[in-house]
Amino acid sequence: MSHERIAETFDEWAESGRAEGMERGHGDVVGQVVRQMGIRPGDQIIDLGCGSGWATRMLAKAAPGAGAVGIDVSRRMIARAEELHDLTSRARYEHGTFEALDFPDGRFERAFSMEAFYYAVDLERALAELLRVLKPGGTADVVIDRFEESVHTEGWSATVQLDMHFLPEAGWRSAFEAAGFTDVVTKRLLDSRGPGDEASFVPDAHCPDYRTRVELHEAGSLWIHAVKPA
Ligand SMILES: C[S@@+](CC[C@H](N)C(=O)[O-])C[C@H]1O[C@@H](n2cnc3c(N)ncnc32)[C@H](O)[C@@H]1O
């Protein structure tokens, strides 16, 4: 899978308003993670696969003087993030890839990513870059909805027509440890709004029926927390 192919897909998503849908879909879980990250005043945070940048702005507002940079391979997503930017956020957005982050070593105290990391073209290289740009003692908080225990997500790669990593929870822990992270902990998070009621359920390519919707909800999102050794 090439970065160009990923960019083409997410350029289309940005054009068709799907970025706003992702904010609605991911907002509750991201809020839970951001509140638990304990972002400190002045922390500098990188948001990998920022899409329209709504989470980048949330991260930047989490503490006084904190700042966040969103990275995305889709130029249309970056343009959408610029359009939606509010001037009170110390957030900015840059075109780039997980595999070649254009930042010096140790630039960030925190790294965050929502529903993006399994698209990595080269997962080993992306994890090495994530580790490199963190300061010693810095933390990574990566959240994904597609993992082996969430069985209904296996077909997403075919639906979206992009390659995606599909690892079990333990496999994600091992990948972070192999990259050099320590204190790697995983946790499942449930959307506090629940699966929604059956009467208002609308099927789509990811979720053809209400039962699947409930099971996807119950599998939750996978939160991987990891530390760069001091
Ligand atoms: C499903 S969207 C999630 C966007 C955002 N985090 C959110 O929750 O709304 C995944 C994003 O990751 C970006 N992406 C995927 N693979 C990437 C890579 N290798 N390098 C940089 N960005 C990538 C895509 O362009 C896309 O905007």
How would you sum up this structure, described in words?
- The protein is 37% helix and 21% strand.
- It has one domain (3-227): Vaccinia Virus protein VP39 (Rossmann fold, 3-Layer(aba) Sandwich).
- The protein is α/β, with parallel strands linked by helices and 230 residues long.
- The model has no long low-confidence stretch (mean pLDDT 96).
- Strands 3-2-1-4-5-7-6 form a 7-stranded mixed β-sheet, sandwiched between helices.
- The termini are far apart.
- It has 8 helices and 7 strands, in the order H-H-E-H-E-H-E-E-H-E-H-H-E-H-E.
- S-adenosylmethionine binds next to helix 1, helix 2 and strand 2.
- The site of S-adenosylmethionine has 23 residues, from helix 1, helix 2 and strand 2.
